[in-house]
Specification:
Keywords: Cytoplasm, GTP-binding, Hydrolase, Magnesium, Metal-binding, Nucleotide-binding. The protein is α/β, with parallel strands linked by helices and about 350 residues long. It contains 6 helices and 14 strands. It binds guanosine-5'-triphosphate (GTP) and magnesium ion.
C-alpha cells in the first residue's frame, strides 16, 4: 500500500527558429554574398527536483508547460535568439512516467537533479550556411525543427507529516475532510476508511500532509482489524494526532486501547510526538468537557486539546499544534539524514 499523488502534465519543447535568406547590401557592392543567419534553438523542457515541496498539488492548477520557440535568423549573419527553457519544479521522490508506454522515464531522487524531458528543436540554417564554391548565392534556408510534445505522469509516494490515530468512528475522516482537500468516505459505522486517505492541510500559509488511516482496535498490532497494515505508514510521520471520541461510551478506555496498541507495535511509534485531542465536543456540555479533559490529561501525562470536527471549534488550534511539531521534527529529520552514510550502489 502506497500513498500516491499523481498529476498528468502536458509539455512541449520550443521549436527552432527558421533560417533566414538574405544578401549583403552595401554601397558600391552590386552583388553582396548571402548573409542569412541561422534560427535560434527552441527551449528545452526540464524537470528539476527541489527542496521544500512535498506534494504535487501545484500541478493540479497548472498542467501545461511549453518552452519558448527560438527566433528566426536575420540578415548580416545574425543568429536568432534561443527560446527559454521551461523548468518543472517537482518534489524530491517524484517519478516521471511516460503516458503512452507507462514506463519510468526518470526518478528524481536528489535535490537539484535535472532531467531534460524534451530538447528544443534546432534552428534552421540560414542561406549563409549553404554558400559553396559552386553556389555563391544560395536562396535556400532551413526551417527550424519542430518542438516535441510529451505528456507525462508525475508520481510521488507521499510521506505524510501527520498521521491520524483513533478508534473506529472517532471522527478521523471527518476531521480530514473538514481541514483538507481530501474527500474521504464518512459514515457512522466503524471501518469506513478502508484505505488510507491523504489530505493536504494548510494553516498560517504552510501546507502539510495528513494521513487518515483506518481505525485501530484492540489487537491491531497483532493483525486484528485493518489498523496494523497501516501502522507502518504512520511510522514515518513527524507527529501523530490521536482523536478520542468524547461522545463515546468510555473515552478514557478508548484512549488506553490505542496507546496499548502503539506500545505493542514496538519500534519508535509510541515515542513519536503526539497531539491528543478530545473530539466531538459539540456533543458534550461544559461539565463533561472539563471532566474528560482532566481525565485524559491524567492518563496521557500531557495537555489535551478540545475539538469538534463537525462544528469546527478548536480545529485551527489543533492544526497549529501539529504544525509546530512538524516544523520541529522536519529539522530533526533533515539532520539525521545528513548524518547518514552516503548511499552507495
Ligand atoms: N457530533 C459529532 N459527530 C462527529 C464528529 N466528527 C465525526 N462525527 C461523526 O462520527 C461518525 C464517524 O465519523 P468518521 O469521520 O467516519 O470516523 P472515522 O474515525 O474516520 O471512522 P473509521 O474510518 O471507521 O475509523 C460519523 O457519523 C460522523 O458524522 C464531531 O466532531 N461531532
Ligand atoms: Mg475514517
Amino acid at each position: 500500500m502506497k500513498f500516491l499523488d499523481l498529476a498528468k502534465v502536458y509539455t512541449r519543447s520550443g521549436s527552432g527558429g527558421n533560417g533566414c535568406v538574405s544578401f549583403r547590401r552595401e554601397k558600391f557592392v552590386e552583388f553582396g554574398g548571402p548573409d542569412g543567419g541561422d534560427g535560434g534553438r527552441g527551449g528545452d523542457v526540464i524537470i528539476e527536483a527541489v527542496e521544500g515541496l512535498n506534494t504535487l498539488i501545484d500541478f493540479r492548477y497548472q498542467q501545461h508547460f511549453f518552452a519558448k520557440n527560438g527566433r528566426p535568423g536575420e540578415g548580416r549573419a545574425r543568429t536568432g535568439e534561443s527560446g527559454d527553457d521551461i523548468v518543472l519544479r517537482v518534489p524530491v521522490g517524484t517519478e516521471i512516467i511516460d503516458e503512452d508506454e507507462e514506463t519510468l522515464i526518470a526518478d528524481m531522487t536528489e535535490v537539484g537533479q535535472q532531467f531534460v524531458l524534451a530538447k528544443g528543436g534546432n534552428g534552421g540554417f540560414g542561406n549563409l550556411h549553404f554558400k559553396s564554391a559552386t553556389n555563391q548565392a544560395p536562396r535556400r534556408a532551413n526551417s527550424g525543427q519542430e518542438g516535441i510534445e510529451r505528456t507525462i505522469w508525475l508520481r510521488l509516494k507521499l510521506i505524510a507529516d501527520a498521521g491520524l490515530l483513533g478508534m473506529p468512528n472517532a471522527g478521523k475522516s471527518t476531521f480530514l475532510a473538514a481541514t483538507s482537500n481530501a474527500r474521504p468516505k464518512i459514515a457512522d459505522y466503524p471501518f469506513t476508511t478502508l484505505v488510507p486517505n491523504l489530505g493536504v492541510v494548510g494553516v498560517d500559509g504552510v501546507e502539510f500532509v495528513v494521513a487518515d488511516i483506518p481505525g485501530l482496535i484492540e489487537g491491531a498490532s497483532e493483525g486484528r482489524g485493518l489498523g496494523d497494515m497501516f501502522l507502518g505508514h504512520v511510522e514515518r510521520c513527524a507527529v501523530l494526532l490521536h482523536l478520542v471520541d468524547g461522545s463515546g461510551e468510555d473515552p478514557i478506555a478508548d484512549y488506553e486501547t490505542i496507546i496499548g496498541e502503539l506500545e505493542a507495535y514496538g519500534g519508535e511509534l509510541a515515542d513519536k510526538p503526539r497531539v491528543t485531542v478530545l473530539n466531538k465536543i459539540d456533543a458534550l456540555d461544559d461539565e463533561e468537557r472539563g471532566f474528560f479533559k482532566e481525565e485524559l490529561e491524567e492518563a496521557s501525562g500531557g495537555p489535551v486539546m478540545l475539538m469538534s470536527g463537525v462544528s469546527g471549534e478548536g480545529v485551527q488550534d489543533v492544526l497549529r499544534a501539529l504544525r509546530a511539531e512538524i516544523d520541529d521534527n522536519r529539522l530533526r529529520y533533515k539532520k539525521s539524514q545528513e548524518e547518514e552514510e552516503p548511499w552507495q550502489p
